[in-house]
Amino acid sequence: SWPTRTAVVGSTAYVAHGGGLSLVLVDADYRLTALADLDLPFAAVDVAVSGDTAYVVGAAPASLATVDVRDPSAPALVSVESLKGDPTAVVATTEAVFVATASGVERIVR
Fold it and tell me: pTM for the full model?
């Protein structure tokens, strides 16, 4: 499926795509090695990473997935929450997740 957005933290790229989330190792020579794929119950449109957690937003249905990425070769789905509107972007801090939708911004406290 097609990639929509990518977040890079350290040497790991987190790629949101129509089927879910892919984690890719980027080495010092910029060679890519697939680490893992995680299927999600929606079409992912964006991803943000804070610490050991990736937050993926998607549509159909409008959702936010929380993913444990402590082990990049074995990401684990923690939860999926419904959103009020179709998301277009996500930003994560250590305290909160902010999701932009067509109708505004939703703040989800962690």
Answer: 0.94
